[in-house]
Amino acid sequence: MNKGSIALMTDSTCDISEDLIQQYGITIIPELVIWGDQTFRDRIDITPQTFYERIEKDPVMPTTTLPTPVEFEKAYRDAIAQGAKEIVMFTVSAAMSGTFQAAKQVADRMGFPVHVVDSKGPTMSLGWQVLAAARAQEAGASVQEMLAAAHKVREKLVQIVCLNTLEFLHRGGRIGTATKFLGTLLDIKPLVQINHKTGIVEPSGQARTRKKSIEVLIERFFEQIQPANPIHVAVMHGNALEEAQVIGERIRQTYAPKELLINITGPVLGIHTGPRALALCGYSE
């Protein structure tokens, strides 16, 4: 089956850079940010930079909501109209969002082969799986081979997030089992990680200072990722580009990754992680 006959889709929480989205022809279905009486399409109507600047000053806490069934159906029907014979749709963790269920419910009534996959993670946990499927597709893979390539990556993924504060994760209701941190909410720089079997957030450590938390982030990540093999690493940040670049350069010099990406975390996830959060997400081959 040629590339044009398989449409590859995901939601906007994937945090894949625009150049890679264009390179692989990935369709992005935007999640929605609700801010007071305004509704924004993630990364379309509101940029990540604008979002982070506003959330630090605005007393109104934004919320998020799913794409509507109409939006999923339109994306599927547009792909069919453009010649797709099958559709592969990856979503953010079903434990964090109703996106998977919504995408699947629409897919189930399409009368057309739409393969909806729960990535069991957010941001580049989702993104790396989509890229694995895209690269398999580019090499001529079938749908099942694309799904297998993504699954292989998911089994090896490590994602750890260094939060400047736990406040946003708590207020957004995505704290998972990291509730143990709440007693010392104001006194620590917590680290959390994604369990890619359950798709939920778990505690990973804590530090008293920003500098120490970054050290713990790097240490914990590379303890788990097996850097002796070729590695793919994404450095994600909540409008903290300079710190992300310093971390990226350190990783480049120390570990010589096969692939290193640096990107800003989008608004839908930024609501929960907050400004200045830093994350490492990747896998070893």
What features would you describe in this structure?
Residues 174-184 have low confidence and may be disordered. The chain is built from 10 helices and 13 strands. Helix 3 (69-81) packs across helix 4 (99-108) and helix 5 runs antiparallel to helix 6 (143-154). The protein is an alpha/beta fold and 285 residues long. The strands form 3 sheets. It has a 6-stranded mixed beta sheet, with helices on both faces. Strands 2-1-6-7 form a 4-stranded parallel beta sheet, with helices on both faces. Strands 4-3-5 form a 3-stranded antiparallel beta sheet, with helices on one face. Strand 1 (6-11), helix 1 (18-24) and strand 2 form a beta-alpha-beta unit. The chain starts with 5 loop residues before the first strand and ends with a strand. It is globular, with a radius of gyration of 18 Å.
In which range does the helix fraction lie? 25-40%
CATH fold name of the largest domain: Hypothetical Protein Tm841, Chain: A,domain 3
Cα-atom radius of gyration: 18 Å
Structural class: alpha/beta
Helices and strands in order, then pairings?
Layout: E1 6-11, H1 18-24, E2 27-29, E3 32-35, E4 38-41, H2 48-55, E5 63-65, H3 69-81, E6 86-91, H4 99-108, E7 114-118, H5 123-138, H6 143-154, E8 158-162, H7 167-171, E9 189-195, E10 200-207, H8 210-224, E11 231-237, H9 241-255, E12 259-264, H10 267-273, E13 278-284
Parallel strand pairs: 1-2, 1-6, 6-7, 11-12
Antiparallel strand pairs: 3-4, 3-5, 8-9, 8-13, 9-10, 11-13
